[in-house]
Input
Amino acid sequence: MRLFRKEGATIQIISFPGEDVEKGDYLKITDSTGKNLIVQVIDIEYANIPGILEELLRNHNNSLVQGEDVDPFEVANHIAFIQDAHLLICKIRAIDVQGELVHASSWLPSRTKARVKRLTVDQLLASDKNSFMTHLGATTRRKDIHIDVRALDGALNIITGKKGTGKSHVSKLLVLSLVSNGAPVVVLDLNGEYTGLNRDASGKPNSYQDKILVLTPGKNFKLTLNQLNIRVMLSILVNTLHLPGTSAREFKRIWHYLNERNALTLTNLGEAIRDWKCNQHVRDALFSRYYTLLHSGLLTDQAACTSLESELAKIQHGGGVIINLRDTSLTNRYIVVEYVLAKLIELLTKRRLRSIFLFAEEAHLYLRETYWNDIVTRMRHFGAFTTFVTNQPDTIRESIYRQADSLFLFNFTSSHDLETISRASKIDSETIKSVARDLPPHHCLVLGNVVNDFPVVAKIRELDVLAMGETRLFFSESQGSS
Amino acid sequence: MVNAQFPITTTPRYNFPLQVGNLQLPLHLIELSIQTLHKTHHQLEPTIPQQLSTIDDAALNTQLVRLKPNKQHITIFAIDVSSIRLGETSQGTLLAIRGAIVWKSKNSYQYVRLGPFPFHIPNHMKNDLHRLLNGSTYNAKAPTNLAPSTLYLQTRLTGILERWMQRSINEVTQNSIILWDGNMVAGTPDTPIKTMSKMLADARQQQNIILAFSKVTRLMLYNRKLTDLLLRQSPPCILMTQNYPQYENSIRNMGRINVAKLSKSSCTFRLDIDANLPQTEVIQAVQTLIGNDSIQNSYPETLRLAHIYSTFTAAEVLGLQRYISQESSLKMISRPNIRRILFGRFGKGPEG
Ligand SMILES: Nc1ncnc2c1ncn2[C@@H]1O[C@H](COP(=O)(O)OP(=O)(O)OP(=O)(O)O)[C@@H](O)[C@H]1O
Ligand SMILES: [Mg+2]
Output
């Protein structure tokens, strides 16, 4: 390999046949100064040798002219060697000054003296083997990649990629490694995919049996009015059920009235609305919301039902609460999520929870506009560290991408999606566009903190957990084979 | 002589397709190539060739002949050779030559390329090499101390391959048209009169007609460049000259000089044809050429392809440089600018 050219933060290197270099590989450029430039191959092109087009037209695929060469010196091999030279488009990732990595691009090695060598990923990623290291998967060259789960601490992460590429899979892997390392995790599980995490692939309980708790709204997860404080209740009524302001004020009075008498039950609430002295329009408005809530199946007067708070208490020292939103109506999803987030904020501010890792699948389907900012600013401040998982990158605002500490990027073919991500992410857009387009399924480009800002392509390892919530197909495999 | 350091895998008799089946490799050229990349000693003297320059207008007779394409099938062969400088060593120059034969039969073109053959021309061996080259064509005259230029030796090497290919093609084919790039000037160290007259006689014997096309010519007639004379004539036509001078010093033109405008274009070419052929046969041959080959810018496609296939591309130059550095002990001290050598290439032909 020979150093060829530098343009901004891009270094071009010529590589010849036999020098096995792949997209995503890291290269170390060394010259006599003792410094090393660490670059990453983000694209591979044909070396643009003048006259090559003429040559190709002349020699190949030309059905009009056929012929052969009498080449006694076998120069053809050497010519092919030149013709097959590649141009490696590389991005400068760091400078290594006596073993210390500096993310900068200010130094340029000598073109004539520089030697280019391949660098393995484990030479770049945190090398100390501590218990926080999680096996993420392998590089395309089958070198194991470990990440330090502590890099997720205090962080905002995004997992994105097109449908079916493995986003939820890596998300599950992160959830399990956080849980194994004693962290509390809450998953907003849109498709009920995480409910199998406490069983192995064959369905038998696994080591997470007692650590992964599944709450299914309307089933083992119902709320008493006492659990809902008035703020959450009003927020649900106003924002989700669109209760007008005057009626909301009236509701607040009813709530306080019942609360003071320690009589907050669904039955009492219904009666209070009926008997409350108020305008008929207000009463109608309140009744229609009341019945919506009553029929949602989310509310109960049975105090014995599971409380989120008690479940969260169980996972304080490592565990996951899966909020299974599968088969939950749109309205109910909003209500449940509103409640869960409010509860988390409450527990965090009261310091009854030290911190929580929140995983949100396709959050735009249940998260109101106003909560997004809350999550990445206020909640983060209190100790809720969120990982968004989505196949629609444009549902996440640009400002959120900018604040993301780590990004797990799976394949995208749509240039619109790639544009969205590359515009917003801290890493150069060329890397994202060039690498993401070629990622095979189950492979992702990992960017940011978890990889020490050395973007790495990882084939995510398999998980021995029960697969749940996969798309139900009409023509199932068993149908095909029987 | 085949040097062990230079693995040569080809058999002396190469299996060519079609009529070219009996072509043999110019083994002496390969050997010469190997020798120059090492050290050999021969002694020879240089001879700088001279060229025909002007024609006495008064003595000249010209005749404009309009041509009608003759579609009767004939196989057309074309031969071209190129050379290129690969770079300098501390002792001299590295270059390479390659030849291409293209033929058209029915509607398909085929080619065979010979080479590339790399050569090293050390300055201290120029005279030896020159002597060796002349030895390969005719007996040397008295040696002089003047060393020939590298460019001259390059031309000579190229000429050897070219003449050899021209002769070989004539041997293996009959009743064909053979297109050359250049002319039929003889009496040069490259081409002694004896050699050229034998080549032309052999062609007549084989019922082949050689048409030699050249673009640039210094020949003047009526104070105009010969190739400009047909500018206003509508194609296809040919301006034939008669009783022009055949001798100038030791140089002899053994072809009849014609100017051809074979298709609509601003280009005309000098077209030399064996002076010993009757005029009717000459006209017939040109008409068959334009009836069989595609003619663009007044130039036959077969010959254009031969030119294209022989010239070197940048990757080939780089590949040859790599070959030299890997397969020989020669060290290149300067490499020519790839773009420059390609644009100012040594190869001949319409685009040359
Ligand atoms: N690294 C992996 N090794 C083995 N199987 C995997 C891997 N990643 C994903 N899979 C499998 O591929 C399928 C799709 O993966 P997953 O559900 O994670 O994709 P997704 O990107 O979340 O899809 P969607 O956009 O539909 O949510 C699943 O069956 C999953 O088990
Ligand atoms: Mg998914």
